C-alpha cells in the first residue's frame, strides 16, 4: 500500500494545475496524480486533430510539468473508494490525506435511434479513439454534425478545410445558442455557409439511418440528409462515477457540489474542473460551463488551500469567457448574453460598435470588429460582451473578462487608459470597448 499526502484523480488541465499549485504551496508533501490514459490530450485542441494537426499525437498534453514538480504519475483506474483510500484496477491500494477529484466530463449521448451505428463519432478525449475518428472522417465524403455549439462549428470548419461536404444540425434557433445572442449565431451561420457548409437550425434529428453503418439522418420534418459519417457534438456531462462511490453530494447534470474553496461535502476531498459544479458569478445559479481556463483557475485555488487556507479568496463563481474561429472569422464572448440578462430580469442598456483592428484600416491583416456590450442600467457595470472579428478577438475577449470581474462601470471604461499601435490595435479614437461603451452611455443618458 502506498501512502500520499495528496492524491489527484484525473490528468487534464484541472488535475495538472492542482498538482503544480500544490507542489508550489506545499514543497514537502508527497503528491500523486492518477489517470487512466497512458497519454493525455489537450482538450481545446481536439477538434484540430481532424485536419489542421498532421497527427493526433501533435495535441498531447506533456507530462514534463508532472515530472518537473516531483509528482508521482500513476497510470491506472480507480475501481473502489472508501475513507481515505483508493483501490486501483491493478489491485494496488493507495491512501491519502487529501483527495482532489478532477475526473472531467464525458460526451453526452442524445437519445437518437441509430446512434450506436458504425461511423457515428463523439468528440472524446482519448488518443486511440481520436486516431480512429480521424481515419474514419478522412475516408468520409459527407459528414453530418449534430450540435451547433463551439465544438460542432470547430469540427465543421476542420472538415470544410479537408474538402468534405458538411452539414451542421442544431435543434435550437441559432448556432452557438447557449453562449452568444442570436445575431452572432446568424453571423457564424453565414461564415460556415460561405465556406460551403449546409446549416440547419431549429430542427431535430429523428433517427440516424443506415444498416450497420450510417447513411444519413432523418429529421423531425421527415427530410432525409445523406452522409457517410456523423459527429455528435451535443455537449458534455460531468464524470461522477468516483464521486458516487464516495457518496459525495452531487447535482447530476452539473457536477460535484463544492463550496467557494472547491471543498466537497466530505472532509479532505476537493473537486475541480468539469466534474465540479459551477455557479454563475452574477446569479449564483448552477452553470453548465466547462472550460479549461475555468478548470485551471479552480485548480490553482484548490491546490493552494489543501491543508489550510493560504489564499484568502473564495472562487467567486464562474464567468463564462469563450472564443473560437471559423475560417478567418473569430467569435468571442464573456459574461451574460442579452437573452440571459432578459431572463434574470435585469434592466440593461446595449452598446454597439463596428470598427477595424488596425489603423488605418487598409493596413495588411486588418479585420472588421463588431462589438456588443451589455450594461446594467442602474449599477452601470458591464455584464457581458460579445465580439466578432479577426485574430485580435482572442485577447479582446480576455480584456472584457477582466473588466467584468473587476466590476468596472461605463464611466470608468470611458476614461480607460490604453495603449495602441497602427499595426497592432484599433485607433485610439475608435477603440471598440470604449466606443461601444460610449454608445451605451448615450442611450442611457438620452433614455
Overall pLDDT, averaged? 95
Task: Give the CATH H-level superfamily of the largest domain.
Answer: FAD/NAD(P)-binding domain
CATH topology of the largest domain: FAD/NAD(P)-binding domain
Strand content: 25-35%
Q: Which structural class matches the secondary elements?
A: alpha/beta
Number of helices: 11
Q: Tell the overall outline.
A: globular
CATH architecture of the largest domain: 3-Layer(bba) Sandwich
Which spans of ≥5 residues are poorly predicted at pLDDT below 50?
none
Please state the CA-atom Rg, rounded to the nearest Å: 23 Å
Indicate the CATH class of the largest domain: Alpha Beta
Total number of β-strand segments? 26
The separation of the N and C termini measures 70 Å
Structure characterization notes:
It is globular, with a radius of gyration of 23 Å. It has 3 domains: 2-106 and 237-304, FAD/NAD(P)-binding domain, CATH 3.50.50.60; 109-234, 3-Layer(bba) Sandwich (FAD/NAD(P)-binding domain); 328-446, Enolase-like, domain 1 (2-Layer Sandwich). The protein contains 11 helices and 26 strands. The protein has helices at residues 13-25, 64-68, 127-139, 150-161, 182-194, 241-245, 292-304, 338-344, 393-405, 410-414, 432-446; strands at residues 2-9, 31-35, 72-75, 78-82, 85-88, 93-101, 105-107, 120-122, 142-146, 165-170, 198-201, 205-210, 214-219, 224-226, 229-232, 236-238, 250-251, 255-256, 269-271, 278-279, 286-287, 321-326, 329-335, 348-356, 368-376, 382-389. It is an alpha/beta fold.
Amino acid at each position: 500500500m502506498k501512502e500520499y499526502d495528496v492524491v489527484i484523480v484525473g490528468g487534464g488541465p484541472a488535475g495538472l494545475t492542482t498538482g503544480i499549485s500544490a507542489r508550489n504551496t506545499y514543497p514537502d508533501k508527497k503528491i500523486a496524480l492518477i489517470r487512466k490514459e497512458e497519454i493525455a490530450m489537450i482538450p481545446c485542441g481536439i477538434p484540430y486533430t481532424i485536419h489542421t494537426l498532421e497527427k493526433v499525437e501533435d495535441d498531447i498534453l506533456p507530462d514534463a510539468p508532472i515530472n518537473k514538480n516531483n509528482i508521482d504519475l500513476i497510470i491506472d483506474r480507480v475501481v473502489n473508494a472508501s475513507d481515505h483510500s483508493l483501490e486501483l484496477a491493478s489491485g494496488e491500494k493507495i491512501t491519502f490525506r487529501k483527495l482532489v477529484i478532477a475526473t472531467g466530463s464525458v460526451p453526452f449521448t442524445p437519445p437518437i435511434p441509430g446512434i450506436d451505428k458504425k461511423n457515428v463519432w463523439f468528440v472524446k478525449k482519448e488518443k486511440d479513439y481520436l486516431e480512429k475518428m480521424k481515419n474514419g472522417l478522412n475516408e468520409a465524403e459527407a459528414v453530418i454534425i449534430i450540435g451547433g455549439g463551439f465544438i460542432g462549428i470547430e469540427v465543421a470548419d476542420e472538415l470544410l478545410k479537408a474538402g468534405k461536404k458538411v452539414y451542421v444540425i442544431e435543434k435550437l434557433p441559432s448556432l452557438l445558442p447557449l453562449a452568444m445572442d442570436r445575431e452572432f449565431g446568424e453571423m457564424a451561420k453565414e461564415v460556415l455557409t460561405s465556406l460551403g457548409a449546409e446549416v440547419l437550425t431549429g430542427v431535430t434529428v429523428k433517427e440516424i439511418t443506415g444498416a450497420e453503418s450510417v447513411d444519413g439522418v432523418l429529421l423531425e420534418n421527415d427530410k432525409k440528409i445523406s452522409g457517410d459519417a456523423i459527429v455528435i457534438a451535443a455537449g458534455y456531462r460531468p464524470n461522477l462515477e468516483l464521486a458516487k462511490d464516495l457518496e459525495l453530494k452531487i447535482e447530476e447534470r452539473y457536477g460535484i457540489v463544492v463550496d467557494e474553496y472547491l471543498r466537497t461535502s466530505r472532509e479532505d476531498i476537493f473537486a475541480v474542473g468539469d466534474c465540479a459544479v459551477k455557479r454563475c458569478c452574477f446569479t449564483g445559479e448552477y452553470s453548465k460551463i466547462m472550460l479549461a481556463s475555468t478548470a485551471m483557475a479552480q485548480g490553482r485555488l484548490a491546490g493552494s488551500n489543501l491543508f489550510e487556507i493560504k489564499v484568502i479568496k473564495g472562487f467567486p463563481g464562474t464567468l463564462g469567457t469563450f472564443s473560437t474561429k471559423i475560417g478567418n472569422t473569430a467569435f468571442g464572448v464573456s459574461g451574460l448574453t442579452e437573452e440571459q440578462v432578459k431572463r434574470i430580469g435585469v434592466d440593461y442598456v446595449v452598446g454597439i460598435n463596428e470598427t477595424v483592428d488596425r489603423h488605418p484600416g487598409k493596413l495588411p491583416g486588418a479585420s472588421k470588429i463588431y462589438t456588443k456590450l451589455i450594461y446594467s442600467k442602474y449599477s452601470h457595470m458591464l455584464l457581458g460582451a460579445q465580439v466578432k472579428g479577426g485574430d485580435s478577438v482572442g485577447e479582446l475577449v480576455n480584456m472584457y473578462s477582466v473588466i467584468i470581474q473587476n466590476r468596472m462601470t461605463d464611466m470608468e471604461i470611458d476614461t480607460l487608459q490604453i495603449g495602441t499601435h497602427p499595426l497592432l490595435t484599433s485607433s485610439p479614437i475608435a477603440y471598440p470597448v470604449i466606443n461601444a461603451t460610449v454608445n451605451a452611455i448615450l442611450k442611457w443618458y438620452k433614455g
